[in-house]
């Protein structure tokens, strides 16, 4: 069985910080679960365009308020504590954080470790692996 603690991993290579967010990757491909599990903080006032062409992602909001906008259909959804959104169509989207948002994120296939968005908001499928 695997047991991991968020506080321990915040100071490890499993913690990744980008301009608009930080993510602690509790479970990764190397853990062999078939998905990755992250706790992500999205910073207040930031807008992030993302397009997970190689992954499916589900995002469950624990804290904070924001909205997610899907580019293909122009829809906008309010996101707050207790809301989950799932990018079941690899949807290109924009997340706007009105306050700091804390979310649990699940990726399938699992992230490998140090992924950050490229210029199109994509995570590469072959990022550097972290044990
Ligand atoms: C909500 C979202 O996708 N934020 C970007 C970071 C991502 N969740 C990650 O890598 O943990």
Would you give an account of this structure?
This protein is mainly β. It has a single domain (15-108), classed as Jelly Rolls (Sandwich), CATH 2.60.120.10. It is 3% helix and 41% strand. The chain has one helix and ten strands, in the order αββββββββββ. The strands form two sheets. A six-stranded antiparallel beta sheet has the order 1-2-3-10-5-8, with no helix packed on it. The chain has a four-stranded antiparallel beta sheet with strand order 4-9-6-7, with no helix packed on it. β1 and β2 (21-27) form a beta hairpin. The longest helix is centred in the first third of the chain and has 4 residues, at 6-9. It is globular. The mean pLDDT is 97. Bound molecules: (2~{S})-4-acetamido-2-azanyl-butanoic acid (9YT). Residues 21, 23, 38, 40, 42, 50, 57, 59, 95, 103, 105 line the site of (2~{S})-4-acetamido-2-azanyl-butanoic acid.
